[in-house]
Amino acid sequence: MSNCQNTPREPDVVTILWQRNPLRLLEPRTIVEATIIGSANPCRNDLDEGSRLRDAVACLLRSGFLLVSSTDLGIFGVSVFIRQRL
User: Fold this and answer.
1) Which residue range is the domain that position 56 belongs to?
2) Tally: H helices and E strands in the chain
3) CATH no. for residue 35?
4) Which of 12, 22, 71, 78 could form a disulfide with 38 if both were Cys (CB 3.0 to 4.6 A apart)?
């Protein structure tokens, strides 16, 4: 008899490529592309191209995701979030 209750589930992973306007540095950073492995619920709508990065990050953190990596390359950047599902 197998015991599947003790098997951990795969984590949810969200990778966001974002950009800022180099001519207007005070404008909010926007999402260029988001990649989702697993689920990003309830934040899926905040991850669309052109959405504000700040709104997506706030939703992901409220939903149990942890920011595990963030790289600022000047005009572009990449952020990676992981949520361990129980």
Assistant:
1) 9-83
2) 1, 4
3) 3.30.1410
4) 12
What contacts 48, CB < 8 A, 6 or more positions away? 31, 34
Beta bridge partners of 80: 15, 69
Q: Is the pLDDT of residue 79 over 90?
A: yes
Length of the chain, in residues: 86
Number of domains, the chain: 1
**50 inside domain:** yes
In a domain, 29, yes or no: yes
Give the pLDDT confidence of 27-71 residue by residue, as tens digits: 999 999 999 999 999 999 999 999 999 999 999 999 999 999 999
